[in-house]
């Protein structure tokens, strides 16, 4: 069998499972899903499998080389995945699908009325996946769109009464999720962590707003 066809035949069975979990997931989300399902090519050595099964292997390696920044990036990526699972479970009884739905609703609630483009950018989304979130929330009757009277090319988004109710219901669901994500950190530790993460978020938001392309060398030279 052609190697390309063989590879496709191994990937196809996992597509339905991925779509069930993340109907609006990106290609990179799919790759992460395959990794979590331990979809590997034949011939992988036991040693390599053992390394991949060790959840801390990547961060441990970074720490061994005293690369704390890379270690932080891996930790944040993994924490985001844990949070995604908790939110998906916590939102089962709500009209929302995931944290993206809540983020978009929260942004609309804050601004009352906002353009689609601004809403997507505010939530740090790529346009195709951001548009899918908006369409899903509109289909569910949680958001409504109207033409901007000052510029008919622009669609403005606002929350419906059902959307407002779903938002406050989801906020209540987030309380136990938040406690779980925080683990056994003390109040003092959480305060310090939140302050540090807020500073990092502000730093990267400035980059996100100003960069038209993500050239890492240019970003490092300009911002650090």
General description of the model:
- The chain is built from twelve helices and three strands; from the N terminus they run H-H-H-H-H-H-H-E-H-H-E-E-H-H-H.
- The protein has a three-stranded antiparallel β-sheet with strand order 1-3-2.
- It is mainly α.
- The protein folds into three domains: 9-39, no CATH class; 50-90, no CATH class; 91-211, Winged helix-like DNA-binding domain superfamily/Winged helix DNA-binding domain (Arc Repressor Mutant, subunit A).
- It starts with a helix and ends with a helix.
- Strand 2 and strand 3 form a beta hairpin.
- The longest helix is centred in the last third of the chain and has 24 residues, at 187-210.
Can you give keywords for this protein?
single chain, 224 residues, mainly alpha, Arc Repressor Mutant, subunit A, 3 domains, three-stranded antiparallel sheet, 68% helix, globular
